[in-house]
Design a protein that fits this description.
377 residues; alpha/beta; Rossmann fold; 2 domains; 8-stranded mixed sheet
């Protein structure tokens, strides 16, 4: 992985460099399109011969989008104002300061702040009735910590899939701070995770045994960090040590690998088949900071968890081997209950991107499996 010249990087991540590169990306993609349309017609030429023609094309296009987004470092604007979500968008207030201790304590002017989030299918009723709902999911979106949010444009497919195919009755998706934005480096996202959980517990009055912790990709990394936090600091922070369950979808368990030229995503045997790119992972890891913290680098740092854990990973994704290794490490901790599910033929994070890449059925199958596991607890 060659280092990017700082001058070139600054040009490409500011205007007019961004616009110039975007025009270049559109032009080169249009020029290549006829080739791909023909090349993928025979199934044996597709990255996975079991994929459909549409899947092969969509994965190729999303890979390009991810690549070019990493080059120009697209900005995800974050606001506490509701948009089209209207009353489904709720701002979680900062919890008492005693909730933010240890790795979640303020540091380098990174302090707890209110967190906006979107409810699916609707915001809960008044707090005295909220406990009637059997299963509420606290879900953190993916995006390498640099892009995305919990609003419908990004997260609707994941939320709808989980609502339809699992026992979940409501899902809350926070817009945790992104490391690509000022003030978003570690531990900003962890603080926001504590704030979001506190909102469900304190304001919605949901009992801990009704809450399922969930996250996809970088969101799963964050969810795992929150789960570790509950185990090690829950009692001292007046938080529960365990929740009903945890779902980790294609978890990014070792961002530090994206800073190591010998271990970046393009070293994975699945790299030719997935849409994730090495540049995307490097962008996320560099801006996040503290990637060697045990609250970020989960691979090689297994921990005890009272909460039952379900890990879902795609057979064709670049993170597959690391996810399998992490599942084994977590299973090796006495008392942990860990289930690993390998989604056949699936690329990275189909629970989030299934509709974009034509893997809706794979996402639905993954959700059904997680739902059946939850019902069996």
């Amino acid at each position: 992985m060659n280092a990017v010249d700082p001058t070139r990087k600054e040009f490409l991540t500011t205007q007019p460099g961004k616009a110039i590169w975007t025009l270049f990306a559109v032009a080169t993609t249009a020029a290549r399109l006829p080739f791909w349309l023909i090349y993928y017609l025979p199934s044996f030429l597709r990255p996975n011969p079991r994929w459909t023609y549409v899947q092969a094309l969509k994965v190729r296009f999303l890979r390009l989008i991810v690549h070019h987004s990493s080059i120009v470092q697209v900005v995800t604007l974050q606001t506490l104002s509701p948009g089209a979500e209207k009353t489904r968008f709720v701002v979680a207030p900062v919890a008492p300061s005693t909730r933010y201790i240890g790795p979640a304590a303020p540091v380098h002017n990174i302090n707890p702040k209110p967190v906006g989030g979107t409810w699916y299918p609707a915001a809960p009723p008044p707090s005295d009735e909220a406990a009637m709902y059997d299963t509420v999911v606290l879900h953190f979106h993916g995006g390498a910590f640099v892009i995305g949010d919990g609003r419908p444009t990004d997260t609707a497919f994941a939320a709808q899939t989980l609502l339809k195919h699992t026992p979940a009755t409501r899902i809350y998706c926070p817009d945790y701070r992104l490391s690509s934005n000022p003030g978003g480096a570690f531990p900003a996202a962890l603080q926001d995770a504590v704030t979001s959980l506190s909102y469900l517990l304190d304001i919605c009055k949901l009992p801990a045994n009704r809450i399922v912790l969930s996250g996809d990709s970088a969101g799963a990394n964050l969810a795992a960090g929150l789960l570790r936090y509950l185990t090690t600091h829950g009692a001292a922070a007046d938080l529960p040590s365990a929740l009903k369950a945890a779902w980790f979808w294609s978890p990014w368990v070792d961002p530090s690998g994206s800073l190591d030229p010998t271990r970046t995503m393009d070293k994975s045997p699945n790299y030719p088949r997935d849409y994730l790119t090495a540049a995307f992972g490097t962008w996320g890891a560099k801006t996040l900071g503290s990637v060697h913290s045990e609250y970020v680098k989960h691979l090689g740092n297994p921990f005890a968890a009272e909460t039952p854990i379900y890990i879902s990973t795609g057979e064709c994704e670049v993170l597959f081997d690391e996810d399998v290794r992490w599942a084994g490490e977590m299973r090796g901790v006495k008392g942990n209950r860990v289930e690993l599910s390998v989604e056949e033929d699936a690329v990275h994070d189909v629970i989030l991107t299934g509709k974009l890449v034509g893997f809706e059925r794979e996402a639905e199958r993954a959700a059904r499996r997680a739902g059946q596991w939850l019902e069996g607890l």
